[in-house]
Automatic annotation (TrEMBL):
GO terms for biological process: superoxide anion generation. GO terms for molecular function: superoxide-generating NADPH oxidase activator activity. It comes from the Eukaryota. This is NOXA1 oxidase. InterPro entries: NCF2_NOXA1, TPR-like_helical_dom_sf, TPR_rpt.
Length: 178
């Protein structure tokens, strides 16, 4: 499902983030690391993306993506890269609250694995009701109308400018003008 989601929206950072978590659970560590890198890239230097507007009650923070990236690097035994990634996450953490990252740095120093962050279980994209109601089909053309021609023997169907021109074909009969 996440593959289909990110195929439809290649900039959906939270989609890559969630797929990275699934890859970690499936022990597909290289794919998880790639997804976390894509999620961070699609944050586009923003500290967070608020997905509430789209119907997901979750805010994806850059430091969470970096923390999960470090978790994937730990699984791949890339301890120095994980430490560097966590130090980068400290910069992205808002208001200097870095207790969780300090603990993570200690765990990486001791070569202990990290548990990746995830979107809270049970959170799904649920668009607002008014947006879903607008998805009903609308009749923009209206009802068809039959229009008859005053030109005798007129069997042409189409637009007037596209009609082939014939000499004397367009003069109406005298009784049709009354």
């Amino acid at each position: 499902a996440f593959n289909k989601t990110v195929a439809k929206d290649k900039s959906l950072a939270v989609g890559f983030f969630q797929r990275g978590f699934v890859h970690l659970q499936l022990e597909m560590y290289e794919e998880a690391l790639s997804d976390y890198h894509l999620a961070f890239r699609h944050l586009r230097q923003n500290p967070f993306i608020d997905y509430k507007q789209l119907g997901l009650r979750h805010i994806l923070y850059a430091w969470e993506v970096l923390y999960s990236t470090a978790a994937a690097q730990c699984q791949l035994q890339q301890w120095e890269e994980a430490r560097a990634t966590l130090e980068k996450a400290v910069v992205w953490r808002p208001e200097g609250r870095t207790a969780i990252l300090d603990l993570a740095l200690e765990r990486v120093q001791d070569r202990l694995f990290l548990e990746p962050m995830q979107v809270p279980p049970g959170e799904f994209f649920r668009p607002r009701k008014k947006e879903v109601e607008q998805l009903d089909s609308k009749d923009f053309l209206g009802k068809p109308k039959v229009i008859s021609s005053i030109i005798p023997n007129d069997e042409y169907i189409g637009f007037e400018p596209l009609r082939p021109q014939k000499q004397g074909f367009y003069e109406p009969r005298a009784d049709a003008l009354r």
